[in-house]
From TrEMBL, chain B:
Name by which UniProt lists this protein: Sugar ABC transporter ATP-binding protein
ABC transporter domain location: 4-234
Gene3D superfamilies xrefs: 2.40.50.100, Nucleic acid-binding proteins, P-loop containing nucleotide triphosphate hydrolases
Taxonomic source organism: Salibaculum griseiflavum
GO cellular component: ATP-binding cassette (ABC) transporter complex, substrate-binding subunit-containing; maltose transport complex
């Protein structure tokens, strides 16, 4: 009896989970499907689901009209650079919070997170002026710094949670064994926290890749990443849904593939501490 | 060389003083055990010596040099932790080699020392395994191996055997004592287990609430405990402590007599009591005997063959030469 109920419930939850999953994935699926339609079919009413003339012409046009590789390369540099820089800054920060906490550590962590509550547009003006002043507008370096700063709280938080799981005695042992602070971080803490660091890197790479507000506002040509590439197709030229979809698909494909292969790490990273 | 001196050392956590001013000298080559109930400050004291905690005031000298503000890595001390604290991502070989690598020693010398240490500790077959693949006793030996390769001025052990099962603990106790004889290096060993303290130490430091209650050799502590705390803490089973009218007969506030220093008779003796629980260990039997002058039953050791009925009446005679007397403050009266 009990068993029957459990099985039934399991089936139900599974179905529900699939339902929610598909619902969330649907816009992405629709974008991908639309990218293979003609412009006319893309806006057909009622919408056509699968029964259309599959075509690659949108991709050909997009490829012809803009330099995809340049945008892709900028995206890689911005996402990769900001994540790497963030990790380098966050490892020592999280180390000190996890292993030599003070009375204010919890407050600092919350305060750092609270900066994420501010709408980005609230600081657009000062940052924009700073960028002009420093000559960072439309530069990769400037964008790397801004993206690093906006994701830093999350990186520190994630690493902090991971580091807390590492027994302090092991670090003390390293200190007794003659390791300097640098050696302790390099040879003991970092290798032990590799799974945690990996999922932090992945998540922040994805966040930086998808970041659109700052990348759109602070770049024009030279530093423009894939978000700008997509945006350039939603222009006043008119509604070209199929081409816009093709551009979007091209922009999200690399990160989608990366995410697919690193699912396990990502899920572990996001649920860490909650389930263990 | 490993002479360690603590001069007026104190430690406070916030407003709470866990170590009141404390003076102690540990001679070179000595096996010193810090023993006391949990929370007595013995581990804190060890961590102060290691440098893992900063002292609040006072001076720590190692080999006559002020080490108070020296970082742990530069004190020349090696520590074995309760949890072993092995590096889980390194093989046994790399674990043992780690302190040598940190000392920037040449690879040939490192290999030589690791091989030698592994031989001493029977770890040769396990050098390429990870700590996770070892048993508790083996992990313990790796932790010791990591400590000995450096040839430190002194070894610090923080309750190293408390995670092992009873049989293994006796074996490792012997191994550590053996190691001390072989290396002749200063060792400071923290434990709450007075049996470990008695069996291993050259010198025992009994601590309570951060205070040193007594320092002495195991036999000194056993024969002449300075106060009732040490009297009750050292020795197994515990010394019988009797206060009140019976103690007054001996001109003391409290008298103490060890279970092995009471003679038991069915017919005569100054103390009359009723037999309670008997513990038969084979070699000895411990009887818990309720006397009318004491709230708690007295523990009495008798030969292993002796059997007494529960509830039987017996007579006890404390051996006068082994009777300990303490005043109202709990201090020993000579």
């Amino acid at each position: 009896m009990a068993r029957a109920v459990t099985t039934q419930r399991k089936t139900l939850t599974t179905a529900l989970a699939w339902g929610v999953g598909l619902l969330i994935f649907f816009p992405i699926l629709w974008t991908i499907l639309t990218s293979f339609k003609t412009e006319a079919q893309a806006i057909a009413n009622p919408p056509i689901f699968l029964n259309f003339d599959w075509t690659l012409e949108n991709y050909a046009i997009v490829q012809e009209r803009s330099d995809y590789m340049r945008f892709l390369w900028n995206s890689v540099i911005l996402a990769g650079g900001s994540t790497l820089l963030g990790i380098i800054i966050a490892v020592p920060a999280a180390w000190s919070m996890a292993f030599v906490p003070s009375k204010r550590t919890k407050d600092i962590l919350l305060w750092m997170l609270s900066t994420k509550m501010l709408p980005a547009v609230g600081v657009l003006y000062p940052i924009y002026l700073l960028f002009i002043e420093l000559g960072l507008l439309d530069s990769r370096a400037g964008l790397v710094i801004v993206l690093m700063l906006i994701n830093l709280p999350i990186i520190v938080w994630m690493l902090y949670t991971y580091f807390r799981e590492i027994p302090g005695e092991i670090l003390e042992a390293a200190r007794m064994d003659g390791a300097t602070l640098k050696e302790e971080l390099l040879y003991i803490l970092t290798p032990m926290a590799i799974p945690g660091i990996a999922s932090t890197v992945l998540l922040n790479f994805i966040l930086a890749w998808n970041e659109a507000f700052w990348t759109l506002n602070l770049t024009a040509v030279d530093a423009a990443p894939l978000t700008a590439f997509i945006a350039s197709y939603s222009s006043p030229e008119g509604l070209f849904f199929a081409k816009l979809s093709a551009a979007s698909t091209m922009a999200i494909a690399p990160i989608l593939i990366l995410g697919w292969f690193s699912q396990k790490q990502l899920v572990r990273g996001l649920t860490f501490g909650a389930v263990k | 060389m490993g002479r360690i001196q603590l001069k007026d050392v104190t430690k406070s956590f916030g407003d709470v003083q866990v170590i009141p001013p404390l003076n102690l000298t540990i001679e070179d080559g000595e096996f010193t055990v810090f023993v006391g109930p949990s929370g007595c400050g013995k581990s804190t004291l060890l961590r102060l010596i290691a440098g893992l905690e900063d002292i609040t005031s006072g001076v720590i000298e190692i080999n006559g040099e002020d080490a108070t503000d020296v970082v742990p890595a530069r004190r020349g001390l090696a520590m074995v932790f309760q949890s072993y604290a092995l590096y889980p991502h390194m093989s046994v070989r790399k674990n043992i080699a780690f302190p040598l690598r940190m000392a920037k020693m040449g690879q040939d010398e490192i290999d030589k020392r690791v091989t030698a240490a592994a031989e001493v500790l029977n770890l040769t077959d396990y050098l390429d395994r990870r700590p996770g693949q070892l048993s508790g006793g083996q992990r313990q030996r790796v932790a010791i191996g990591r400590a000995i390769v450096r040839e430190p001025a002194a070894f610090l052990f923080d309750e190293p055997l408390s995670n092992l099962d009873a049989a293994l603990r006796v074996g490792m106790r012997m191994e550590i004592s053996e190691l001390h004889k072989k290396l002749d290096t200063t060792m400071i060993y923290v434990t709450h287990d007075q049996v470990e303290a008695m069996t291993m130490a050259d010198k025992i430091v009994v601590l309570q609430a951060g205070n040193i209650e007594q320092v002495g050799s195991p036999l000194e502590l056993y024969q002449r405990p300075r106060n009732t705390f040490v009297a009750g803490f050292i020795g197994s089973p515990k010394m019988n402590l009797i206060s009140g009218a019976e103690a007054a007969k001996y001109d003391a506030a409290t008298i103490g007599i060890r279970p092995e220093h009471i003679d038991l008779s069915e017919t005569e003796g100054p103390w009359k009591g009723v037999v309670g629980v008997s513990e038969h260990l084979g070699s000895d039997t411990f009887f818990h005997i309720q006397c009318d002058f004491s709230d708690e039953p007295l523990t009495v050791r008798a030969s292993g063959e002796l059997t007494l009925e529960y509830g039987a009446t017996v007579h006890l005679t404390p051996r006068a030469e082994y009777l300990h007397r303490f005043d109202a403050e709990g201090l020993r009266i000579e």
